[in-house]
Amino acid sequence: MPDLNQLELQHLRQLIGAHDTAYQKLNTYSSQAVDPQIKQLFTKSAQDALNTKQKLMSFLSE
Length: 62
Description:
The chain has 62 residues and is mainly α.
């Protein structure tokens, strides 16, 4: 993979931060949900956000 320029690196960091924020919020919503289907939806969405964050972070180590 070619080296990232400064603008690409800044965008990547912003995306990582946004997915981390989404993960944290969705986890909170999941813990507060009463309806099992809603709880499951928030839990899956939180996991998806975490997976995407981790994948984006892998670009920093390449």
